[in-house]
Design goal:
single chain, 984 residues, alpha+beta, eight-stranded mixed beta sheet, five-stranded antiparallel beta sheet, 38% strand, elongated
Length: 984
Amino acid sequence: MVNTVVQDEEGYIWIATINGLQRFDGNRFITFQHREGNEKSIPNNNIATLLLDSKNNLWVLSAFGEIGIFDKKRFIYTPSSIKVKDENILRSAKFLFEDTDGNLMLLLSPHELVTYKKSTNEFSSANNFISFPKNWKVWSVFADKVNKNFWIAADSGIAVFNAATKKLSYPGQNLEGFHAIDDLSKIRYASQLRLDSRNRIWFITWSVVTGEGPYVYCYDPFRRRMMIDKLSLYSFVPSYHETNTIFQQRSGKLWLYGLPFLAEFDEKTKQFLAVPNQYLHEQSVNFERINTLFEDREDNIWLSTSDNGIFVFNPSAQLFKNVQHINRFTNVPGHEAVMSFVETDNRQLLVGVWGEGIYRYDQNMNTLPVAIEGLGEKNGYSAWDMIRMSNGEIWMGLQGGMILVYDQQKAIAKIYTPPSIEGRTIRQVVEDKHGNVWLGTHSIGLFKWSGSATDKKFEDRVTQITSIPRTLITRLLVDSSGYLWVCTIVDGIYKIDTKTDNVIEHITSKDTVTKRLIDNSVADVMEYDDSTMLIVSNGLNIYNTKRNFITHISTDNGLPTPYIMCMEKDRDGKLWLGMINGLCRLDLEKRNFSYYDRTDGIRNDKFKVGASYLMKDGRLLFGTTNDFLVFDPEQVRSTHAPPNVAITDIKLGATSLSVDSIQNLPELKLRYDDKSITIDFASLSYLKKNKLTFYYKMDGVDKDWIQSDMSQRAIYTYLPTGSYTFIVRAQNVDGSFSKEITALKLKMNPPFWKTWWFLGLLIIAFVVFLYWLDQQRMNRIRATESIRTRIATSLTEDMTNSISSINISSELAKTKVDKDVERTKEYISQISDTSNRMVQAMYDMVWSIHPDNDTMQHTIDRMKMFASEMESAHDTDIVFDVAKSVSKLELDMEHRYELLSVFKEAIMNASRHADARHIQVMLQCKKRLLRMSIEDDGKGFDPEAVVMGRGINEMRRRTSAINATLKIKSYINTGTIIKVELKV
């Protein structure tokens, strides 16, 4: 059930139905419905009317009185309010209209008129500037956009409101002297009022009191008289009916419609001509009620019906006309096939119908009397073929082996029955250049009527050509060189020399590859030019007679179907093929195909074998199973370039994007994981005669243009990273393309790990890493040099001190050697001790530097080895308590060396000087803090009273060098505790 149809500025068709709002692009529909909880969806699915205002806003009005603007780009609904005196009237008949000043008004007939105010976004009577007479029930208001008056039709008559003067004129108060007000003063119960382009006033009356009506009126204000006065439609709508407002096309043609009728107004007779409302064929209209009529920008009329969807037709573009004869025996439309045509000298047309006789038509295809003496008006002859002879006679091949010869000058026909034809049907008749007539029969082959055998009777001049098999002859043709071409049903095609009657060429499907037919059943033949013969046999065979070469056109090359029944060439050289179910136009040079069938207005598209004809004025005729088709190829030809193609939808996966928003962008940017993109396109043209073919290409992906199928959709499932341009264009049947190519730019962004900035960051990071490695290397070198420097300095200091001590002790020993032996021994002992210490220091230094000892575990092992040596030299027991975490520590050479030196100094002090018997060594690491504790039970000392000797000072120096802390606690006769703490 469709209530209204409108077309927006871009060309989309918008349809109001009882089940939602729809957009149609000529190829597919998009449906918009109410969604619970979605405030941006339409408020109700039952859409009563649509209006596209002067600002291109699409107003949507529901049957329940909800109104608002639907954004055609973003598909978002914005509501407006309606303020009325009684909410119940919102369900009454509603008429939404706009005047020339852009004022939007809603008539809730017959109760209230409300006007829209943008600042409040509200329809209200408070915004009205039109006034009505008190207590009038207004049924319709028409805004005259020429004179800017408002014509009002009500139960009390007709009134006019002048928006400029703010004056209201009506019967009894004609303030501005409108003649129509006075002349129509007696009218009551008026409705459906509108003015046509001639300023005539059309309206309907229907009394709610007496029930009289509906009556149609048309008032001519210039002549001040009724052109149509109280017209009842019962003459062609015998049942109950209701009328809607008269509808006028831009061409001026008027239509009246409603329940259940559609009628065209004839300006000549001033009568309405009803359009049959019944199902006759696929192109007929059948409906219960027409709700509205709408004319789009291509002059198509859209009929919105209450029960059967939408019908679309174009009165000005009915290019094909099927002419059906009236059977003279039954006076009803004929049901038999039309088989033959011929034009007479007076430009009339004779048509042969199987089993129903011969008919005559004028140039407008109006039926005329046959008017042929010897034939009769009610004749039942089956004329299979008709031909105008060189002497002006018209010969016809009839069923039953008869030949009809029609003398046009005398208007007399004679029928001959040659006995040699044995009563078989004569299907084909053709005259050669020598005055002979060749006859093709239904089942016994080819015959010749000799034009030179004047000494014989007409019937006896017919002889059989025995070189042609006794079979069905489908077509005969004499070419420009005088040769006769004979098409057979089972044995290919023959070429005969009409001088000698000899067969000079026989072509079948079994000939050589370069010269053979698709099939042996030949339906038709045509001489296309002086070197090309076209032969129909399960497709089209193109025979180049000069090169002796045959090429084929079949369904593989674009032919809609292989079953061609007949063919004709128009004045432009285009080939028209009558098929078993449709009509095909073929541009032989460009190999462009155009297909026409019932959807193009051809009522019957089942054509008959050999039943085609080219009229002198260029029109073509094709016989069908029950009528014949007539059309002008010039009118079918596209005279204009096809419209530019519009991109109607873009989908990423299953998600539609806003086409309008995308087209405003420089390019559509896609993510690397947007692998599937679908692009829909359409011409936004709804006229079938345009017959467009769409071609698209994705630059950067497709090498050539791709012809779209009927879906008019391009799908790309994978696009590599890069920039692309999708282009699409349309081509009409004449090969003309759209003036502009529609383009959409896309960019497939790479994943972030392939972007330039990420690669740049990687390069920078790599450079920074290399720099860091170099810095680390340099730091290690500097650290090594620093360690070496400190080691060298320490070693130098130790050696200097030791050598100085040795030097001093040796000098003292020399002075005491003769005088004080004991003291000399003491000095020698100091020299020995100092040299041992120096040797140990040098050994430890060398040991620490060696790479094989570059772990903490090796340092612990070295400590234990030294402890064993001290245990052997002194009566001392040394016990180690080493945590596992300490062995895994990674300390540099300097830290290990200094730590080892502090350890050895503490052990030697405890063993040699403190006379300790037990020494406890603990190594622990907690929270990145290394603790070394050496506790002995020696004699101890008073840290405050005793001057620190060389060993303790050495320990302090070494712990300070590695930023460690040294704590010494000693008690006399109790022992000493030395603790070292180092952050690791």
